[in-house]
């Protein structure tokens, strides 16, 4: 029986580690190619903590949180705030499942909770089987909705962290009470009610987080769709204008060439050259930006090109890489906010108005560089990069959104000045 009990404890600890690492890998995505090898760096230490610190519950929980966070930061994509939150949530759920299982088995079997946590009994093995099945089931339910929790902002994630830290502390206290305090039937029922309430609150919190995240995603998509609709209307008008001009050119071209031919016969070469240059030097505002498979970014860029043309701002675009679909929405909004700031800054200048946007990929990293002309140093006069927008509601929102996007994708943000130009350089891993 001792060998069976030891084997059950080892297998339970291994399963805990596998479920934790698998959940994190599916939620955040592994940075590197060899996922099996990377997973081993998380599973082995988590197994050792779960097995060898089983008699020191608080130390075990704290160490698991630290190791899980270190694994996520080192090997997985995503922001540190999200990783800390999910890390705490996993440990909280495991604590609640363990506590609820021990209470229910104790209530229906009449065996004390203290006996159920001691190695070497059939009841202990039964508790292990039940807790691991519940853990796998809960992990499956959460992974089914994994994409609903990625749109929260940093302050919202902080609130979530505060709640789950509090719930984890409460769970640890309750579990210690269940294990160390003898309770009669009424007290056991009361404790089960408290545990059920805590589990219900956690489930409701997950549902609310998902709803908030989904609402934010819809808001972002609606914003892009509105811009796309306006861009499509503008494109239709431009297409109609181009068609009308083409018809006009087709109608006039024979007449022009007849005139040019007569002038050449009369040796009026200089006049012909002048007329031809005048004829072909047509300044058109019909330029349409198109990046393959990046419709959202196309909509943003065409809108900004139109704004720059209407305000006599030279807009130079250098694109050599398309953004992957998973990141296009956030990066499109980020580019929109940066270009809005650049346009706002250019309108205040007396010198030439010019904006340059570069999008390229180098060594697996997307680079977005927006450059605009300046008259005086921005970094000296406004080191915090506060905006001058008239509406206080809009003040600083664009920059906050940019930083949130960069943090989400674990990118870098840099501002510098060179040759009377201000540049914003953003780097986001592929």
Structural description of this entry:
- Keywords: Membrane, Transmembrane, Transmembrane helix.
- It comes from [Clostridium] fimetarium.
- This is GHKL domain-containing protein.
- The chain crosses the membrane at residues 6-24, 36-53, 59-76, 88-113, 125-143, 155-179, 191-210.
- GO terms for molecular function: identical protein binding.
- By secondary structure, the protein is an alpha+beta fold.
- It has 2 domains: 2-222, no CATH class; 287-430, Heat Shock Protein 90 (2-Layer Sandwich), CATH 3.30.565.10.
- It is 69% helix and 9% strand.
- The chain has 13 helices and 5 strands.
- The protein has helices spanning 2-28, 35-52, 57-75, 80-109, 113-116, 122-144, 154-180, 185-265, 269-280, 295-310, 325-346, 378-381, 397-408; strands at 314-319, 354-362, 365-373, 412-417, 421-429.
- Strands 1-2-3-5-4 form a 5-stranded mixed beta sheet, covered by helices on one side.
- Helix 3 packs antiparallel against helix 4, helix 4 (80-109) packs antiparallel against helix 6 (122-144) and helix 4 packs parallel to helix 7 (154-180).
- The longest helix is centred in the middle third of the chain and has 81 residues, at 185-265.
- The protein is elongated, with a radius of gyration of 32 Å.
- The two termini are 52 Å apart.
- The relative contact order is 0.07.
- Mean pLDDT is 76; it is low at 282-286 and 390-397.
């Amino acid at each position: 029986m001792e060998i069976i009990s030891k084997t059950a404890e080892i297998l339970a600890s291994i399963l805990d580690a596998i479920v934790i690492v698998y959940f994190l890998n599916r939620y955040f995505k592994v940075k590197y190619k060899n996922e099996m090898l990377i997973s081993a760096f998380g599973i082995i230490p988590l197994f050792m903590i779960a097995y060898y610190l089983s008699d020191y519950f608080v130390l075990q929980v704290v160490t698991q949180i630290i190791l899980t966070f270190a694994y996520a930061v080192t090997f997985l994509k995503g922001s540190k705030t999200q990783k800390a939150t999910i890390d705490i949530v996993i440990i909280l759920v495991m604590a609640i499942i363990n506590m609820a299982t021990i209470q229910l088995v104790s209530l229906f079997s009449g065996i004390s909770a203290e006996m159920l946590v001691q190695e070497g009994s059939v009841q202990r093995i039964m508790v292990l089987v039940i807790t691991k099945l519940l853990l796998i089931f809960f992990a499956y339910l959460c992974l089914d909705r994994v994409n609903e929790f990625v749109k929260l902002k940093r302050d919202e994630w902080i609130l979530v962290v505060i709640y789950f830290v509090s719930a984890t502390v409460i769970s640890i206290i309750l579990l210690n009470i269940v294990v160390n305090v003898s309770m009669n039937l009424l007290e056991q029922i009361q404790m089960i009610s408290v545990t059920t309430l805590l589990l219900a609150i956690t489930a409701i919190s997950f549902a609310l987080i998902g709803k908030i995240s989904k609402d934010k995603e819809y808001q972002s998509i609606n914003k892009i769709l509105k811009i796309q609709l306006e861009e499509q209307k503008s494109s239709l008008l431009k297409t109609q204008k181009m068609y009308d001009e083409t018809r006009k050119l087709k109608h006039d071209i024979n007449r022009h060439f007849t005139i040019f031919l007569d002038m050449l016969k009369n040796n009026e070469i200089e006049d012909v050259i002048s007329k031809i240059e005048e004829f072909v030097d047509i300044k058109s505002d019909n330029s349409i930006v198109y990046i393959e498979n990046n419709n959202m970014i196309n909509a943003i860029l065409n809108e900004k090109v139109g704004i720059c043309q209407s305000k006599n701002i030279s807009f130079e675009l250098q694109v050599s890489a398309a953004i992957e679909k998973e990141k296009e929405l956030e990066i499109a909004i980020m580019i929109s906010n940066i270009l809005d700031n650049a346009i706002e800054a250019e309108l205040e200048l007396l010198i030439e108005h010019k904006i340059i946007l570069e999008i390229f990929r180098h060594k697996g990293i997307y680079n977005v560089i927006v450059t605009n002309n300046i008259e005086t140093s921005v970094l000296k006069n406004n080191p915090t990069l506060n905006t001058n927008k008239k509406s206080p509601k809009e003040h600083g929102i664009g920059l906050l959104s940019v930083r949130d996007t960069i943090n989400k994708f674990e990118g870098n943000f840099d501002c510098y000045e060179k040759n009377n130009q201000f540049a914003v350089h953003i780097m986001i891993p592929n």
